[in-house]
Amino acid sequence: SGVTRARKQIPRGLEEKYEAYFLPRKPWPKALAFYGSFVLGGIGAGMLIESWINNKLKEDGGVIWEFDK
């Protein structure tokens, strides 16, 4: 049991930059706001598309695609 194992070390310049090399960590309120804005943007876009489809259905009388034109 006198064998000492060599421990893998991070190169010297990397110690303080270590986290930035893999996943940049944001404080959670900032991360929540950042990713939440994408989620809300996607929901908003979906609602706009849905209302556009509903308007089309009202205008055209329920026909979305006509294949025999």
What form results from the Cα inertia axes? elongated
* Amount of beta strand: under 5%
Radius of gyration: 27 Å
Characterize the largest beta sheet: strand count, sense, and whether it forms a barrel.
none
Give the helix tally. Answer: 2
Taking pLDDT < 50 over at least 5 consecutive residues as the criterion, the unreliable ranges are none
Mean of residue pLDDT values: 77
Q: Spell out the helices and strands N to C.
A: HH
Detailed description of the structure:
The protein contains two helices and no strands. It is an all-alpha fold. The model has no long low-confidence stretch (mean pLDDT about 75). Keywords: Membrane, Transmembrane, Transmembrane helix.
Structure in a nutshell:
The protein is built from two helices and no strands.
Spell out the key features of this protein.
mainly alpha, 55% helix, elongated
Question: Strands, helices and their partners?
Answer:
Layout: H1 18-22, H2 28-60
